[in-house]
Fold:
Amino acid sequence: MSPQHRRRRIPDATVARLPVYLQLLTERMDAGVTNLSSEDIAALAAVNAAKVRKDLSYIGTYGTRGVGYDVEYLVYQISRELGLDHEWSVVIVGAGNLGQALGGYGGFNERGYPVAGIFDIDDSKVDTVVGGVCVQHLDDLPRVVAQRQVSIGVVATPAAAAQDAADRLVRAGVTSILNFASVVLSVPHGVTVRTVDLGVELQILSYHEQRRVAAATGFRSMSEDAPRGRSA
Amino acid sequence: MSPQHRRRRIPDATVARLPVYLQLLTERMDAGVTNLSSEDIAALAAVNAAKVRKDLSYIGTYGTRGVGYDVEYLVYQISRELGLDHEWSVVIVGAGNLGQALGGYGGFNERGYPVAGIFDIDDSKVDTVVGGVCVQHLDDLPRVVAQRQVSIGVVATPAAAAQDAADRLVRAGVTSILNFASVVLSVPHGVTVRTVDLGVELQILSYHEQRRVAAATGFRSMSEDAPRGRSA
DNA sequence: CGATGTGAAGACTTTCACAGCA
DNA sequence: TGCTGTGAAAGTCTTCACATCG
Structure:
């Protein structure tokens, strides 16, 4: 239980999977399961067991040979590694369709990311209430970020306004941005951006669909190229 | 302009970037730009120029040495490769918070993915109107999928209902699923799933934040491990 | 000359396979 | 005995560097 680890750098690919493991481990824990092997976890996550072991080995040696992993302890360790041992306030920029949905959604608070504020540049949106939070003017962003020690910002503006939103977030002191706009944000080195773009996801899917159609329509020439799904 | 290509398998990593290139090329095209070099594209996409060239080389040799790429032609070729030369109807399962936001959002139609139907298992939601589309009962899913030739389904249900939603989609004939629930969906081989999970994204960001804090609080021992953002 | 297209090198990720420990 | 933890092999992705061509 000592907070004395923080070892080697964890590979990006592993960091992206830890939340998935955490999710499913928590779910099994709540169902009363106390121990799981890497095989078990692998089956639940639809990945290879060796990958699970490698991933977990990056955060420490928390398994028991011949037995498996203690679910509760593993949940604790992964949580700590992901920085979930305390809350991270977030600010949302953009109170349109998406901003409202995100604010009203409740998923932020549930997961330990309280919404410190929702901001918009449009005065007609200011002072409306979204998800129990009052929309503030974008000019108030720096104050709130500083006062509430916010380090994560969510960009939920139209594409055209996203770069400005990001610039303001960075200037205010935010160092991680979750971007929902269809734009490649340019930010200084040291700021982390993750973009979630509905259009990109759909286009990746339609690429696969189109291949299936092409294959079915009779593009003989390639032997075994059935588009593999990412889950089994 | 001949539809006679469909060559070698394109790497997943490249497929994931093509939509980003397409987006920014379209944007420049609309701004009147007719030609761009791989350097230019790389700068706009915040990636390496060699990567842009490699990526584009997978879909064909559409550049001109000493000059660059004709933006309009490239837009056309990428679109074709992604299967955007025709529309792909989608169905949305789940008419709750998220389903409503997605349905009302308009992004689907705009991008060539018309919403063929929104479905929910809850009778109280059936017949309400979301984004101009009337919510139907989940039992009507197979009929609509068949009639409208839907191959892409969106899962916008609570986590607990997501696997059932996916099963129904697959049974109805859908072969690509965009999953917004925090669950690893299990689907048959041949079905593509992409999961977009707010919680996962936030946790990846807080991992990076937590490292920054750890570094600042004085975890000397590692030399150069400033968390690199994904954009410049 | 200048920018593409691409082999080859390098980096990262996944998987194998097995030593080693509970 | 059974499952973890991990070197080493295999596979994938990125980057370099340059021959090639408009």
Q: What stands out?
A: Chain A touches chain B through 79 residues (CB under 8 Å). Residues 106 and 131 of chain A are 7 Å apart (CA to CA). Confidence is low (pLDDT under 50) at residues 1-6, 221-232 of chain A. The first helix of chain A runs from residue 12 to 30.
